[in-house]
User: What shape does this take?
Amino acid sequence: MKIGNFNLNKDGTFIIAELSANHNGNLQNALESIKAAHEIGANAVKLQTYTADTLTLDCDKEDFIIKGGTLWDGKKLYDLYKEAYTPWEWHKELFEYARSLGIDIFSTPFDKSAVDFLEQFNPSAYKIASFEITDYELVRYTASKQKPIIISTGIATKKEIEDVINICHEVGNKEIILLKCTSAYPAPLESANLNTIPDMAKTFGVKVGFSDHTLGITAPIAAVALGACVIEKHFILDRSIGGADADFSLDIGEFKAMIQAIRDTEKLLGTPTYNLNEENIKGRQFSRSLYVSRDIKKGEVISQENIKSVRPGHGLHPKYLQEILGKKAKADLGFGDRLCIEDIS
Assistant: This one.
C-alpha cells in the first residue's frame, strides 16, 4: 500500500505530524509548521477540516459543556471547535506549500461537506478521527473516494471496528490502516495497551499504526517495535504558541528526536534472519576451537591432556572433540598449533 509516494511495504514507518489546532489561528504558524515538519523528516502533515457548525450545535445545555477531567472542562463544545478549527480558506495555500516542499499533506474530514471540499486537492489519503468512527455514513462516503483510509480506533468497540472495515470493503476500498489510539488528552502510559497493535493486525487483517496522545516519545518508539507502520503525533512549533492541543504536542526538537528514534528502531528491528552478518563473521575469531595444548609427537594418541577447546576460533570446531579423542597424530604438532582434521589418523 502507498500513501502518496511512500510505500508502506518497504519505506519504513510513515510519520505524520498532526497540526490540528497548533497554528492557534495564525496562518503563518501553520506554514512554518509545515516547513519545520519537512525539515526534521516527517513524512506528512495532517490537517483537520471542520467548522464548529459541522461538528456540534451552538447550544448552552449541559450536554454541550465539556467535562470528565479533560484539558477543556467547562468549555462549550461549540466554542472549543470555533477556536481550534483550521479555516477552510487556508487549505489551498497549505496544500500548495507542502507540495512545493515535497512533504505529503492530507486531512481529517469531519462531515461529508469536508470530504467534498478536500477532494479538489486530491489528497493522498483520508483520516477518520477516533470520535467519528461511529459515524458510519461518514466512513462510507470517505472510503468511497478510493483513497487510502486511516481510521483511529480510540473509542471503538471490536464490533464497530469490524463494521467500518466491512463498510470500506462494501464500497470497494481495501486500503485500510487502523490506528491504535487512546482517546485521552494527554493519555496515561498505562492506558496505551500497545500489545493490541500486533493483535489488531492479526485479528482484522489490515495494516496497523498508532495515533499517540501520551506525553513524550517512548510510546511511538515502542509501537514501531511492535509493528506499527504509521505513527501520528501532534506537532507544534513551540508550546508557547498556545492553543487547544499545545499541552500534549511535541515541539520541533522533541518531534525530531522521535523521528530519529523511530528510524534507529527500524534499523534495530531489521528482518528475521539466522545468517551471519559481517560483524558476526568477524566475531567468530573469538569463539572456541581445538588447539594443541601440549607438544604432540607423530603417532601419539590425541587426548584431553594434549588438546583443548580454547579461544580463538581458527582451529577445528569443538563438535569434533569426542570424534578425535583416542586417534593418533599424523605428524608432530607443537604447543599452540591449530588442530586440523588432516592432522588426525
